Amino acid sequence: MQSIQDHYPPQFAHCFGCGPANPHGLHLKSFLEGERTVARFTPEMKFSGGYPGNVYGGMLASLLDCHGTASAAAFAYRSQGRTMGDALPPIRFVTGSLAVSYKKPTPLGAELLIVGSLSSLEGRKAVISLELSAHGEVCVTGEMTAVQFMPRTS
Description:
By secondary structure, this protein is an alpha+beta fold. Helix content is 15%, strand content 34%. GO terms for molecular function: thiolester hydrolase activity.
């Protein structure tokens, strides 16, 4: 099964967090599963935060950021009755805002589950609710407003 990011055309595949074409990136892969999106990621020790054994908060925000924009694209494709990777111009979103709430320390080396759900999709704006958990416990929540990227025509 291909991830949402696997459908990114080359000009959009360079993101450090989720771009499949970035040789130094994290290569986060998100999947549309029914009414939600799901990604899994296991952070290496190099992503240590200020407190030993836990993930750096910026890394956690990055995971929510990449998963959120991928989620917005997947939900937009579905709402338009389109298939990712079709011959039409790609649907891509950028972050308008991202509010992150750290609920508890997130352990290094544990598989993290990142889940996104669509709160609203109106015009070019999608609001995505996000949740990151480890060992079945919610560690981070977020809400993203993602805006559909429209290439300049000039």
